[in-house]
Design brief:
By secondary structure, this protein is α+β, with helices and mostly antiparallel strands. The chain has four domains: 3-50 and 127-241, Distorted Sandwich (Calcium-transporting ATPase, cytoplasmic transduction domain A), CATH 2.70.150.10; 247-303 and 725-942, Up-down Bundle (Calcium-transporting ATPase, transmembrane domain); 316-347 and 575-713, Rossmann fold (3-Layer(aba) Sandwich), CATH 3.40.50; 353-568, Calcium-transporting ATPase, cytoplasmic domain N (3-Layer(aba) Sandwich). It contains 32 helices and 27 strands. Helix 21 (629-635) crosses helix 22 (647-659). The protein is elongated. The chain binds adenosine-5'-triphosphate. Adenosine-5'-triphosphate is lined by residues 343-345, 423, 425-426, 455, 457, 460-462, 493-495, 536, 538, 595-598.
């Protein structure tokens, strides 16, 4: 059949039987589509993508740039200054220049914002999930955008559904459809229904929809529509994957803008009023010009751009270190994290499980072999050569059968390497079964699964019911008693304590006996012994039944089971984590382990990694449940390991830590971790093993699932914050210096305004802006991870920043005013050929610029002298200083620029005098560092 004959997207799939839908879409329930079909359909239907309804149009973004109050003020300044010039009969150069700069600023802001939006979109693409499908008869993972109608898609808990589809099979499937219907409660879905045509979206219980979340169970789905044809596509109000919110700092800077504008207007009023009172109206125009210059000077025009660039560079550096930022505020606040709560499996450990031990009533066996390869043997003890024959060992046969059947993973060989698709714990069990020659395909055929209660982190176990076919009955399996006479076999695996609770008998050899207390104790002791070695231990049980229960199969069936044995698997710690934990400790950050695993396993690994130390407590989920929230708050500071916890406990732990004033980063991967991730100050999802739901709730995604990456991102966060503070000090200090210098001119009785608005804009945007950008990429200071975190709620002006700005601004003004006083006297009295009497103004302009060059050089470190720093550790600073100095000299000596900026040629001596005065600024800051050091050493000596 040709593609054109495929059903229209408007087909009412919910009214059709599953098989009919498969037929209509020319697919196959078991083998899915072929590669050729997929290619053709991709051509016809396009990629499975939602065309996002853009939040803002390009014009909107451009117009937004001018909504900034500082720019509005600049436009007002331009209008007044233009009016004055025109009245005087001069060309309104300043006004035009200001307009050009305002426009340029707008364009620059526009380019930056569009780029930032593009970058966020790219990050979002990196975060899009993979989808499990069956194609050409094989299960594979493909990118969500590659899905086409007719694909057979596999769903499990935690997955975000990637397209609309008709259910072919569903086991306890529960889906949260709030993205579509607003209904927060999960909806239970069934494959076998056929519904009325007019069933509403929320009632179409045999369909699943794009963008909804599987919260429980599993399903096989026939994709019916993709991309914009899906229900979500139709309503096209997309839940944004990555939010581009303003950071707290950007918000505070916005507020600062308001303060500065108001402040400058008040200043203008004061200067004009004071001037008019003392000198009368004759000087009004001059006073107005002074005021306009002051208004321009007070506004740090370059600052917002530098902040945006710094945050953007920060996210890029973090992505290079495998931390994908989803919400921009996280870049800035990461540095303030005081506690990192981390999952164990996969984050602290490698999540590469290898079964080491099998322990049954008769024996404890060592298992050899490496990785997931199903090659290895069972031995009585590690050093012995004698291997166990599985066929002689009843419990082992039953255990390996349970490993094979009570399992959702797939073990595959690709390019000679054994890989798993699915949960590594289950992968390890398949590999274990393979070592006893149990083939997954063969046994799932002989004992097909017909019901199940899926695994969840709350239940910590899973069960399946398999039908015993004739084929199975004919198998030569001595140990698997009841195979002949039973109709069905139920297998359960999970946390040993919880699985054992469901057991009433035990298999010993080929016999079954009732389970007494002594045997229970022995099993639990063995479990503790294995867990104490840091092994992840699972318990196995089974039960034969003749018939299936009426109605749904659920966890109430998990009783009267026969205990088979324990399996202990090793999940080695990640080698880099030990050092990362150590770095956390030095940086005043506490690492806490939160795991669903056994307390002894958790404790052994936590001790190995240095997370748990003498006197630290291990708190178990059950104990935690008995504590009230205030009691938990009393405990949290002493607990470094939480074991056997459920996702809802995580939420309580974060809340308790926050109540104690901690700033918490919390990792999570499961569907039910989302509330804790949202509550945490920094919610961190796993890029590889994380469910889509957890990613959606997170602020940051670890692309490599690695704990060490959190620490690296925290370090980057600290560097970003330190650099932002550094250039804020640098830029605002300069603004204060400029304002005071301009205000001083009329007060000292000097004729004329020392700096024109145009010159001030030049300084704020170019001669301050370029070095500030260079300071934004300053590398980490050596002590960045050897000091405690700063309070995230502290003001940006805290810890001396505000006083530094004012102090340095005043010092800069004093040096410049001193120069101004001298230069005024000198230049008005001394007129060599070709030199102008107004040269003093250019000297003030040049001194301010050059002083800021010295400032940039010195401000690279708060404590180290400039000569102690490697000038090439941030070559951008030297480069920007050199470039800016050359540009400044061009403004003075290149005639067209000179005319445009209203500068005057300076003699060599005059330039040297400017340089001399500017150098004082550099010397002052270096002396401040020496003073700080001296004070610190004195304080140390006094202690
Ligand atoms: P973390 O939160 O550090 O990732 P975890 O992965 O050990 O910890 P869970 O996956 O919730 O936490 O597992 C909790 C317990 O459930 C395990 O200790 C194990 O006993 C049991 N378990 C884990 N995976 C399965 C599974 N696929 N089937 C049955 N039981 C399992």
């Amino acid at each position: 059949m040709a593609l054109e004959t495929l059903p229209s997207p408007a087909t009412a799939w919910h009214t059709l039987e599953a098989d009919k839908s498969v037929l209509l879409l020319e697919s196959d329930r078991d083998s899915g589509l072929t590669t050729k079909q997929v290619e053709e359909r991709l051509q016809t239907y396009g990629a499975n993508e939602l065309v996002e309804k853009a939040g803002r149009t390009s014009l909107g973004i451009f117009i937004d740039q001018f909504k900034n109050i500082m720019l509005v003020m600049l436009i007002a300044v331009a209008l007044v200054s233009g009016a004055i010039d025109i009245r005087k009969g001069d060309f309104p150069k300043d006004a035009i220049a200001i307009f050009v700069i305002v426009l340029l600023n707008g364009i620059l802001g526009y380019v930056q914002e569009s780029r930032a939006e593009q970058a966020l979109a790219a990050l979002k693409r990196m975060a899009t999930p993979k989808v499990r499908v069956i194609r050409n008869g094989t299960v594979m993972e493909v990118a969500g955008r590659q899905i086409v109608p007719g694909d057979v898609m596999l769903l499990e808990a935690g997955v975000q559904v990637a397209a609309d589809g008709r259910l072919l099979e569903a086991q306890n499937l529960q889906v949260r459809e709030s993205a579509l219907t607003g209904e927060a409660e999960g909806v239970i879905k069934h494959a076998e229904l056929e519904l009325e045509k007019d069933a509403s979206l929320g009632d179409r219980l045999n369909l699943v929809f794009h963008g909804t979340e599987v919260i429980q169970g599993r399903a096989k789905v026939l994709v019916t529509s993709t991309g914009m044809q899906t229900e979500l596509g139709k309503i096209a109000t997309l839940i944004q994957g990555i939010e581009s919110e303003d950071t707290p700092l950007q918000r505070r800077m916005g507020q600062l803008g308001n303060v500065l504008v108001t402040g400058s207007l008040i200043l203008v009023a004061i200067v004009v009023a004071f001037g008019v009172i003392t000198t009368g109206w004759s000087k009004f125009e001059e006073l107005l010009e002074v005021s306009l210059s002051m208004a321009v000077a007070v506004v740090p025009e370059g600052l917002p751009a530098v902040i945006t660039v710094t945050l953007a560079l920060g996210t890029q550096r973090m992505v290079k270190r495998n931390a994908l930022i989803r919400k921009l505020p996280a870049v800035e606040t990461l540095g303030s994290v005081t506690t990192i709560c981390s999952d164990k499996t996969g984050t602290l450990t490698q999540n590469k499980m290898v079964v080491q031990v099998v322990s049954t009533a008769s024996d404890t066996l060592q298992v050899t072999g490496e990785g997931y390869a199903p090659n290895g043997a069972f031995k009585r003890n590690a050093s012995s050569d004698s291997m166990i024959q599985v066929s002689e060992y009843g419990e082992l046969q039953k255990l390996l059968l349970a490993c094979t059947l009570c399992n959702d993973a797939l073990l595959q060989q690709k390019k000679g390497e054994w890989i798993i698709i699915g949960d590594p714990t289950e992968g390890a069990l398949l590999s274990l079964a393979g070592k006893g020659n149990y083939d997954q395909a063969e046994w799932t055929h002989k004992l097909p699964r017909i019901a199940e209660v899926p695994f969840s982190s709350e239940r910590k176990r899973m069960s399946v019911v398999c039908e015993v076919t004739q084929n199975a009955k004919e198998s030569d399996l001595d140990g698997v008693n009841h195979l002949q006479e039973s109709g069905y076999l139920m297998f359960t695996k999970g946390s040993p304590e919880l699985t054992l609770e469901c057991c009433t008998s035990i298999q010993i050899g080929k016999d079954i006996q009732s389970l007494d207390d002594e045997q229970r104790d022995r099993i639990l002791q063995e479990n503790n012994r294995l867990a104490g070695q840091g092994l992840r231990v699972l318990g196995f049980a089974y039960r034969p039944t003749l018939s299936l229960p009426e109605g749904d199969f659920n966890e109430s069936e998990e009783q009267h089971l026969i205990w088979i044995g324990l399996v202990g698997m090793l999940d080695a710690p990640r080698p880099e984590v030990r050092q990362a934990v150590q770095r956390c400790r030095e940086a005043g950050i506490r690492a806490v382990m939160i795991t669903g695993d056994h307390q002894l396993t958790a404790k052994a690994i936590a001790e190995n990694l240095g997370i748990s130390k003498e006197g630290d407590r291990v708190l178990i989920g059950r104990e935690l449940e008995e504590l009230t929230q205030p009691e938990l708050e009393q405990e949290v500071d002493h607990v470094s390991v939480y074991a056997r916890v459920s996702p809802e406990h995580k939420l309580r732990i974060v809340q308790a830590l926050q109540a104690k004033g901690h700033f918490v980063a919390m990792t999570g991967d499961g569907v039910n971790d989302a509330p804790a991730l949202k509550q945490a100050d920094i919610g961190i999802a796993m890029g590889i093993t994380g469910t889509d739901v957890s990613k959606e709730a997170s602020d940051m995604i670890l692309l490599d699932d690695n704990f060490a990456t959190i620490v690296a991102a925290t370090e980057e966060g600290r560097v970003v914050y330190t650099n932002i503070r550094r250039f804020i000090k640098y830029i605002l200090g300069s603004n204060i210096g400029e304002v005071l210098t301009i205000a001083a001119a009329p007060l000292l009785g000097l004729g004329g305004v020392p700096l024109t608005p145009l010159q001030i804009l030049w300084m704020n945007l170019v001669t301050d802006g370029l070095p500030a950008l260079a300071l934004a990429v300053e590398p980490a200071e050596p002590n960045v991870m050897r000091r405690p975190p700063y309070d995230p709620r502290e003001s940006i002006f805290a810890r001396g920043l505000g006083s530094y700005m004012i102090r340095v601004g005043i010092v800069l003004a004093i040096f410049t005013i001193a120069l101004m006083g001298w230069a005024y006297g000198y230049t008005t009295n001394f007129h060599p050929e070709g030199l102008d009497a107004d040269r003093w103004k250019t000297m003030v302009f040049t001194t301010l610029c050059l002083a800021q060059m010295g400032h940039a050089l010195a401000i690279r470190s708060n404590t180290q002298l400039t000569i102690e720093l490697n000038p090439f550790s941030n070559p951008f600073v030297l480069a920007s200083i050199s470039l800016t100095t050359v540009l400044q000299l061009m403004l003075i000596y290149v005639p067209p620029l000179q005319r445009f900026f209203g500068t005057h040629i300076l003699s060599f001596t005059e330039i040297m005098v400017c340089l001399g005065f500017s150098t004082l600024m550099f010397v002052w800051i270096e002396l401040e560092k020496l003073f700080i050091r001296w004070r610190a050493s004195k304080a140390l000596a006094l202690r």
